[in-house]
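Title: Prediction job returns without error message
Component: structure pipeline
Severity: low
Priority: P3
Assignee: unassigned

Description:
Job completed but the reporter wants confirmation the result is attached to the right record. Sequence as submitted:
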Amino acid sequence: MRFLFFLTFSFLVSCSTAQYEKDESFAELPKNTENLSIATFAGGCFWCTEAVFERVEGVKYVISGYSGGEGANPTYREVSTGTTTHAEAIQIYYDADVVSFETLLEVFFLGAHDPTQVNRQGPDRGPQYRSIAFYRNDREKKAIQSKIEELENSKFDKPIATQVVEFKVFYPAEKYHQDYYPANQGNGYVQQVSKPKVEKFEKSFPQLLKDEYKK
């Protein structure tokens, strides 16, 4: 009975059980980003990872979407089945004079998700929730590999499951997924999964927070 309750609870708070909105039009990428650097990560449900990175000083925009697969213009319905090769991902536009790519890696690996979990994150299961750190050049690739090696030697008992993948393309998710955390505070998943993760990040990385998120 307790196992059945756990399965039911997990289903109810799973990111993939979200109701599909009537307006399933896609969000657009931000404009006027010429002076900003870009980083792309996949670390489980994008509602959580987006909310975490939105709080980092120097981050200007965070867009939820899909990446890491071959099919063009995937929808949330398609990705949620776990049969596409895309993962839920976020694209971060940031001021590199304020926050470095290496600091974003620190947030990704230690503040945004558990990089040791394989094809899952918390209650969310399936390859669409796998961990991926995308790189756009050799410097970023080396930085990711170096961070993984460092963390495996000092922070984690389990191997890090994060895939190190060359960036190809990012598809913005539907509009209703953007800024989902602040707009849906009454949602069960947000309360049970996203909120504890965001609050843990705020407590663990106070030095990285934008002023409006400092306690």
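Comment from assignee: result matches the submitted record. The CA atoms of residues 119 and 130 lie 4 Å apart.
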